[in-house]
């Protein structure tokens, strides 16, 4: 708190002596000139690149081999033999015979045995385990940011102040000295409690906005939008979120759509020499189809053609005004078939008269003064020319060409406009991320 605390004299700034009856005139010229220049430049560029490749390869092989073999053999042989023999012999004589006897006996026995046995066993075991794992991981990320903002501020000011003052010593007997002191103003500064307010801290994670978050909080963000020019970006955001279903927008620019038909109006002035006694009858016969509103070409007798890019078109004319000679007559026209041409390809429209119209007296003049032509596509209605000075007639040039290339509005792509609006909105929300997070809470 600042409070006034009186005044006091400071340093002596200037002293002016005056003699008796002396007078001095003081002129103070204060000249001030200020020049300031400021340049703020901010450059930023955003670019993001991310690449990720993962390669996994697993090979597992297990081989188990087991072989068992058992052989067993046995052989047995037995051989036996037995033999026995006996024999007798005798001799004698009868009467002087001698008697002899021989007895013999033999016995033999043989026995044999054989046994063989074989046993074999073989065991084979094999075990193989193979495991191969191949892993390849590749990740790449590149971020580049560039944003450029340049602000130039230049200011210049000049001020001149002239102050004159007359100081006199009217005393003729004494000298006088005038002294100028500083006047100091004193303040007393104290500190006091100004305000106490309770705060509630909410754990809100502040992250960047994207299209989905902006669409979710669109009502709150629209109400607290700092740049009101971006209010219509929320409508573009909703259309983009549903891929423009129901928006009735073309896939490309308006000028890329074919023109279904054209219509318009013009004023034509008819002049016939009055010395011809039958001019009214000739005019009436020539414009009967106009007055009757015939659907056929009502100016066939006059042979008026409307050409687009040099090609004649089937056009029906209707006279709206009551016929008056030497007076502009209001005529409406409309194409009777599909033009089969894009708006982008239309460069000029030509009104052309026949040099010698049938049914008109010699010396007659048919002049188109001005007119307007509109075109219609599936998604747009536009103007090829409006209230243009056509001046096409037999008495002047037989034809007049009006150049009507596509305008910026015709070449506009509404879907691209929505994409740019959405991008600007998201960028603006992220530039003021604290403000809009506070608005949401």
* Strands, count: 15
As laid out across the biggest beta sheet, the strand order is 10-11-7-13-14
Oligomer: single chain
How many separate helices? 7
What is the CA-atom radius of gyration, in angstroms?
Answer: 62 Å
Largest sheet: 5 strands, antiparallel
Which descriptors would you attach to this protein?
single chain, 441 residues, mainly beta, five-stranded antiparallel sheet, four-stranded antiparallel sheet, flat
Summarize the structure.
This protein has 441 residues and is mainly β. Helix content is 14%, strand content 52%.
Report on the architecture of this protein.
- It is a single chain.
- The protein is mainly beta and 441 residues long.
- Helix content is 14%, strand content 52%.
- The protein has helices spanning 211-216, 218-223, 233-241, 279-286, 288-292, 414-431, 433-440; strands at residues 2-18, 23-44, 47-91, 100-144, 147-168, 176-189, 261-271, 305-308, 311-312, 315-319, 329-335, 348-352, 365-376, 381-393, 399-403.
- The strands form 5 sheets. Strands 10-11-7-13-14 form a 5-stranded antiparallel beta sheet.
- Helix 3 (233-241) packs across helix 6.
Topology (elements, then pairings):
Layout: E1 2-18, E2 23-44, E3 47-91, E4 100-144, E5 147-168, E6 176-189, H1 211-216, H2 218-223, H3 233-241, E7 261-271, H4 279-286, H5 288-292, E8 305-308, E9 311-312, E10 315-319, E11 329-335, E12 348-352, E13 365-376, E14 381-393, E15 399-403, H6 414-431, H7 433-440
Antiparallel strand pairs: 1-6, 2-5, 3-4, 7-11, 7-13, 8-9, 8-12, 10-11, 12-15, 13-14
């Amino acid at each position: 708190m600042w409070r006034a605390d009186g005044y006091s004299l400071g340093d002596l700034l200037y002293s002016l002596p005056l003699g008796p009856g002396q007078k001095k005139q003081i002129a103070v010229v204060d000249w001030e000139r200020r020049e300031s220049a400021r340049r703020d430049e901010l450059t930023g560029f955003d670019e993001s690149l991310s690449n990720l490749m993962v390669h996994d390869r697993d090979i597992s092989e297990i081989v188990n081999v087991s072989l068992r073999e058992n052989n067993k053999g046995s052989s047995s042989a037995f051989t036996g033999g037995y033999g026995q023999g006996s024999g007798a012999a005798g001799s004698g004589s009868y009467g002087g015979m001698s008697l002899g006897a021989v007895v013999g006996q033999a016995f033999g026995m043989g026995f044999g045995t054989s046994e063989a046995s074989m046993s074999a066993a073989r065991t084979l075991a094999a075990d193989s385990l193979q495991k191969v794992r191949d892993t390849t991981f590749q990740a790449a990320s590149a971020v580049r940011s560039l944003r450029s903002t340049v602000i130039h501020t230049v200011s210049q000011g000049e001020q001149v102040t002239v102050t004159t003052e007359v100081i006199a010593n009217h005393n003729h007997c004494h000298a006088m000295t005038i002294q100028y002191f500083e006047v100091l103003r004193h303040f007393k500064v104290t500190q006091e409690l100004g305000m106490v307010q309770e705060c509630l801290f909410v754990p809100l994670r502040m992250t960047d906005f994207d299209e989905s978050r902006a669409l979710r909080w669109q009502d709150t963000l629209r109400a607290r939008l700092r740049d009101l020019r971006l209010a219509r970006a929320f409508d573009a955001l909703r259309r983009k979120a549903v891929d423009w279903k129901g928006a009735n927008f073309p896939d490309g620019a308006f000028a890329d759509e074919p023109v279904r038909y054209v219509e318009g109006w013009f004023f034509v002035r008819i002049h016939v020499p009055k010395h011809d006694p039958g001019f009214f009858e000739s005019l009436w016969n020539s414009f009967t189809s106009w007055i009757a509103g015939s659907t056929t070409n009502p100016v066939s007798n006059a042979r008026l053609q409307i050409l687009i890019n040099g090609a004649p078109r089937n056009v029906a004319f209707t006279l709206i005004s009551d016929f008056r000679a030497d007076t502009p007559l209001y005529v409406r026209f409309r194409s009777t078939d599909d033009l089969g041409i894009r708006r982008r390809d239309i460069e000029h429209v030509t009104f052309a008269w026949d040099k010698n119209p049938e049914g008109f007296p010699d010396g007659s003049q048919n002049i188109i003064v001005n007119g307007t032509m509109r075109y219609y596509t599936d998604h747009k209605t536009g103007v090829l020319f409006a209230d243009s000075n056509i001046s096409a007639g037999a008495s002047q040039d037989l034809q007049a060409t009006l150049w009507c290339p596509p305008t910026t509005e015709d070449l506009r792509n509404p879907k691209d406009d929505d994409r740019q609006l959405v991008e600007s909105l998201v960028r603006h929300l992220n530039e003021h991320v604290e403000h809009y997070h506070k608005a949401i809470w």
